[in-house]
Design goal:
By secondary structure, the protein is an alpha+beta fold. It has three domains: about 1-60, no CATH class; about 65-180, Beta Complex (Beta-clip-like); about 215-325. It is built from ten helices and 13 strands. The protein has a four-stranded mixed β-sheet with strand order 5-6-13-10, with no helix packed on it. Strand 3 (about 25) and strand 4 form a beta hairpin. The chain is globular. The structure holds S-adenosylmethionine. S-adenosylmethionine (SAM) binds near residues 78 and 142. Pfam families: SET (PF00856), zf-MYND (PF01753). Keywords: Metal-binding, Zinc, Zinc-finger. InterPro entries: SET_dom (IPR001214), SET_dom_sf (IPR046341), SET_domain_protein (IPR053185), Znf_MYND (IPR002893).
Amino acid sequence: MDINTDNQNKRHCAFCLKEIQGNEIKRCGKCQARAYCSRECQVDDWSGKGQNHKLWCDERVCEEDIDWDIRIAEGKGLGLFAKRDIPRYTKILVDKGYHSRKEVPQPLLESLMPHSGSLAAKWDFNNMYSSEGGENLGVRVSRLNHDCNNNATFKYIPDLKVFIIVSIVDIAKDQEITIQYQSFNDVSKDAKYRNVRLMILNEKWGIKCQADCVCRDKAVRLRIEKAHQVDKVIPSLLKFAENDIKAKLKVIDDNIEVIQELGGCPISLIRPYYDGFQIAILNQKTVPLSTKYIDKLIEYSEIINSKHSEEHKTFLKYKENPRNHRNYCLKNI
Ligand SMILES: C[S@@+](CC[C@H](N)C(=O)[O-])C[C@H]1O[C@@H](n2cnc3c(N)ncnc32)[C@H](O)[C@@H]1O
């Protein structure tokens, strides 16, 4: 990745987030991009106390003040903005996920919205829930604003205890980097969820989607409904999958196509590609068909789970030897 490290005379310490200037700035000796205010902060960030930079140093994850910065986002408070053109599928930010209010350094939690709220209110307002990791809060993640037409997505990786933010389209210099707090185009979520999301966005964060917002578009909603119907069928395909595998893979391919049409990102494509792999390996004759699914699964998982995650390592094992998977050739037809 092309990283411009020239003339960065104002930075933020990557561990304590303090603003630093000139001689105060100490850079990671290896990547020369990550900045610290002190040796102590560098040591803490290298380990799991911070981002675990020893894992990410070679990957050239984007850095604050070089690739993006925090500025006023009109009508929204602060937000993250691109300082250069950021191509699709770039790792914009890897942020330590704090698992409880008490873990978050107090001044950092204090700086977050709602400005007049208690620490408990700030925790409730900014933590992100995931079924794999429960509630976690990323201090830099908490500065990302919502947009239904988002250009980035986020995932919490439980074994690495970090959030990862990835661009899902090319982002131009000075464009705001946005995520969806509650997504409208996740077809794996049921209709009830999609119907209450506008209420949650409004009641929890005071965000009102305008009438012309993409999430209110009738044609888009109908397409999501159709995609949801296909998605609902998939668990049953996995249950009785020793025969008619090609027909079942056609359902998966249709599901993938429609998710792509809806602007689905790696995070929503991982599941159908995994389903395709699981179905293809149920019958020895169709095992070769699994390659296309596992290859894409690995590609997307590296983008959003990262190659350091246990999940990614498991997918690599399945590629090397599909027999590692419990579904492998239960029945030879
Ligand atoms: C998690 S914070 C995001 C960072 C925040 N802007 C800040 O200054 O720290 C969520 C709050 O940001 C603002 N916000 C986020 N997305 C918005 C949007 N699309 N429109 C208006 N306000 C938004 C709302 O005040 C929301 O309650």
